[in-house]
């Protein structure tokens, strides 16, 4: 299927690896020109070089912290007027809510709620004026099924979800959609880092804990960044203009609910 977005410009955050890179590669495969943002300059430049060589699209690299005003300014200046925005920032650390103070909560809200909102605010009016826009926020399956040790993420990402539910109904008439992609267990560094804590608590090896988590999933495996990227690319496509304000869960069937 031709997704109808060849030649569009996309700003993809947290794009040097993992799910962000999966989204960037899927968009590049459709002929979308990219501005990729990540903090690690070396890793980011390597990713940009690989995508340019493989897909032949224009790829700008912005080594910056997207959760800061300065980082967002750099990214937006490099991208110009994006037709597609994929927001993504590393999740806050796991732990016990009794150990978190105001500083930890504000950091989580800044990164996983306010940063996407600021990026939407900076880009959505231009998208509406041009008559096309696709915004995808990478959030978490914890929005639907909260995970006790990820309380910071549960709270901050749920706040973003509530915000998107309102604004997405205000933009769709101008062919600008805003949706959330909710990853479950994917084979990324983030999953491995989360499992390290579980391994320490249980006294088991990381390999044992990872294998047990894998077998718990109805799919009997973890998802891949390429699978996640393909879903993102569809939400960014010309064919997805009637789909907005949705929380799309990709978790291999782990969430047991009907709705």
Automatic annotation (TrEMBL):
<dbReference type="Pfam" id="PF13561">
    <property type="entry name" value="adh_short_C2"/>
</dbReference>
<comment type="similarity">
    <text>Belongs to the short-chain dehydrogenases/reductases (SDR) family.</text>
</comment>
<dbReference type="InterPro" id="IPR002347">
    <property type="entry name" value="SDR_fam"/>
</dbReference>
<protein>
    <submittedName>
        <fullName>SDR family oxidoreductase</fullName>
    </submittedName>
</protein>
<dbReference type="InterPro" id="IPR036291">
    <property type="entry name" value="NAD(P)-bd_dom_sf"/>
</dbReference>
<dbReference type="InterPro" id="IPR050259">
    <property type="entry name" value="SDR"/>
</dbReference>
């Amino acid at each position: 299927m031709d997704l109808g977005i060849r030649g569009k410009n996309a700003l993809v955050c947290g794009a040097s690896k993992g799910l962000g890179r999966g989204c960037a590669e899927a968009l590049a495969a459709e002929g979308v020109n990219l501005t990729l943002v990540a903090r690690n300059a070396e890793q980011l430049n390597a990713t940009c070089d690989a995508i340019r060589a493989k897909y032949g699209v224009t790829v700008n690299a912005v080594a910056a912290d997207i959760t800061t005003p300065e980082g967002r300014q750099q990214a937006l200046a490099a991208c110009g007027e994006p037709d597609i925005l994929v927001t993504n920032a590393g999740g806050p650390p796991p732990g016990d809510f009794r150990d978190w103070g105001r500083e930890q909560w504000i950091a989580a809200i800044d990164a996983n709620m306010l940063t996407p909102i600021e990026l939407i605010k900076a880009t959505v009016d231009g998208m509406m004026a041009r008559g096309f826009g696709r915004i995808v926020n990478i959030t978490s399956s914890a929005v639907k099924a909260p995970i006790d040790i990820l309380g910071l993420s549960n709270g901050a990402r749920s706040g973003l979800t509530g915000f998107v539910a309102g604004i997405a109904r205000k933009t769709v008439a101008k062919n600008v959609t805003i949706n959330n992609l909710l990853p479950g267990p994917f084979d990324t560094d983030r999953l491995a880092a989360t499992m390290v804590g579980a391994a320490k608590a249980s006294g088991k090896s990381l390999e044992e804990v990872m294998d047990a988590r894998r077998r718990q999933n109805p799919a009997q495996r973890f998802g891949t960044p390429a699978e996640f990227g393909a879903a993102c690319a569809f939400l960014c496509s010309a064919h997805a203009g009637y789909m907005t304000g949705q929380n799309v869960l990709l978790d291999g069937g782990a969430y047991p609910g009907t709705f």
